[in-house]
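seq:
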Amino acid sequence: MEGFVTERLAVRRFRASDGPGLHAYLSRSEAVRFEPYPVQSAQDCARLAGERVSDPAFWAVCLRDSGELMGNLYLSLQQPESWRTYELGYVFYPAYWGRGLATEAAAALVAERFAGGAHRVLARCNPQNTASWRLLERLGFRREGHFIRSASFATDETGEPVWHDAYLYACLAEEWT
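struct:
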């Protein structure tokens, strides 16, 4: 699948020219606060756009009317492939938060994967990222776990990991509506 449209969005594969669009939101601290990477430079985003062109897990989310890149989805087939399990992720431009656009895009991509034979889609998020876990619940995902101090994306002044909790959410094909 090369892409699809929803009521307000066009979801497509990344292009090498998407660097400036990526930079528009990945350069914002609030957009990457819960991501495993820091704010990205224009050079970082140009490189990322080039890498994402050939990575089938990444999807560019654009406004349907203007074509503006305003977020991305990540849906990656997990191992072993025979389990037909995918992991979902998303990052969106803060200027578009609160409008249901991430939910619209994620719902359409997850529906496509289930229609294509996926058995399970899972997602992880920091419990402090209320917007993220609420989005997953709107999608119909169920919270399956709360992992205590299970992830670290940063170190403290002494070089020790700064641990945080993680929620695990998932939805099975037969639960998807």
